[in-house]
């Protein structure tokens, strides 16, 4: 399975625990906050000003 921009942060963390390290490395310290359960990877990347393609590549390599 591959991580996509439409998956929620909570979903990604539950399915791929190693993704927490990658997300934190990109400055996304909100991995444990309640909004992460409903916010998608794409939405979070936009809010944090991150390149979604770079983030997805790193996440999929990191899992």
TrEMBL record:
Q: Which InterPro entries match?
A: CHP03980_redox-disulphide, DUF1858, ScdA-like_N_sf
UniProt cross-references to Gene3D superfamilies, sorted A to Z: SP0561-like (1.10.3910.10)
Q: Name one Pfam family in it.
A: DUF1858
Q: Where is the DUF1858 domain?
A: 3-56
NCBIfam families in the record: prismane_assoc
Identify this protein by name: DUF1858 domain-containing protein
Origin species:
Oceanirhabdus seepicola
């Amino acid at each position: 399975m591959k991580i996509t921009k439409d998956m929620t942060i909570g979903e990604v963390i539950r399915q791929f625990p190693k993704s927490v390290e990658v997300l934190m490395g990109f400055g996304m310290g909100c991995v444990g906050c309640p909004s992460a359960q409903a916010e998608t990877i794409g939405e979070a990347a936009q809010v944090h000003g991150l390149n979604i393609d770079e983030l997805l590549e790193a996440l999929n390599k990191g899992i």
